[in-house]
Design a protein that fits this description.
An eight-stranded mixed sheet has the order 3-4-2-5-1-6-7-8, sandwiched between helices. Strand 3 and strand 4 form a beta hairpin. It has one domain: Rossmann fold, CATH 3.40.50. It has about 260 residues and is an alpha/beta fold. The chain is about 40% helix and about 20% strand. It has twelve helices and eight strands. The model has no long low-confidence stretch (mean pLDDT about 95). It is globular. The structure holds adenosine-5'-triphosphate (ATP) and magnesium ion. The site of adenosine-5'-triphosphate has 20 residues, from helix 1, strand 7 and helix 10.
Length: about 260
């Protein structure tokens, strides 16, 4: 049975999609069966997995509103070694269309149930908002992985996210946990980043993943080739860090 994780942070541009596709590729190369759910109308996780989002007639949107079966919509990422439930701008309409639908926050959870036995990991790339789409992710998931940059306001932003997760835990999904905080785009030479990192560990203890993802230009270049950085340049420091993170996650789920 698949373990399901949201990669979420309502802040934009913090490395959610980069973490989703690279963790997926890392897990796939460690013999795990992985599905990436692109839950962002930007479609960046689809593009970064080598899937051309514009030409798609069916996407995660059609699955969410009940117009298509997940097994007919998912595609294989050749460059990533995992499957993708792709998204494009159609998904922007879901926020409105779902309002009319019963149990609108559980649409993704229901949609995933036929494929749970087919995967070890399902990774959901959330949009940068605490929206109905993200709520669908949280209702479907076992846990949340929070990528964050160690910057001055990072801790403040975290409290909104932590409160939302607590509310979802209380009202919708008693299984939901914060799995961990992942420090990304890290530059150890910056004193401030080091200080914020120390504060994080003080507040969150072993909820902070051991792996640290460095700022690495190869990770930023990879999406324009439709490839996860892990496969684009295996020898880069960024790729190696995400490979390590995959190993840490495989260890982590053994204790869940
Ligand atoms: P959004 O909120 O818009 O969905 P996001 O949280 O998914 O954004 P990404 O798209 O993963 O963030 O990353 C934002 C930008 O930072 C991208 O251009 C990406 O290539 C770059 N980036 C992410 N991680 C790293 C890293 N470790 N080193 C260098 N660049 C990175
Ligand atoms: Mg993104």
């Amino acid at each position: 049975m698949a373990k399901i994780f949201c990669i979420a942070n309502q802040k934009g541009g913090v490395g959610k999609t980069t973490t989703t596709v690279n963790l997926a590729a890392s897990l796939a190369s460690q013999k795990q069966r992985v599905l990436v759910v692109d839950l962002d109308p930007q479609g960046n996780a689809s593009m970064g997995s080598g899937i051309e989002k514009m030409g798609l007639s069916q996407t995660v949107y059609h699955v969410l509103i009940g117009l298509a079966d997940i097994k007919a919509v998912k595609l294989a990422s050749e460059t990533g070694g995992y499957d993708v439930l792709p998204a494009n701008r159609d998904l922007a309409g879901a926020e409105v269309d779902l309002v009319e639908i019963e149990r609108r926050e559980e649409r993704l959870k229901e949609a995933l149930s036929p494929v749970l036995a087919d995967y070890d990991f399902i990774l959901i790339d959330c949009p940068p908002a605490l929206s109905l789409l993200t709520l669908n992710g949280f209702c479907a998931a076992n846990g949340v992985i929070v990528p964050m940059q160690c910057e001055y306001f990072a801790l403040e932003g975290l409290s909104d996210l932590v409160n939302t997760i607590k509310q979802v835990h209380a009202n919708f999904n008693p299984n939901l946990l914060i799995i961990g905080l992942l420090r990304v785009m890290f530059d150890p030479r910056t004193t401030l980043q080091q200080q914020v990192s120390d504060q994080l560990i003080e507040h969150f203890g072993d909820k902070v993943f051991k792996t640290i993802i460095p700022r690495n230009v190869r990770l930023a270049e990879a999406p324009s080739y439709g490839m996860p950085g892990v496969n684009f340049d295996k020898s880069s420091r960024g790729a190696q860090a995400y490979m390590e993170f995959g190993t840490e996650m495989i260890e982590r789920i053994k204790t869940m």
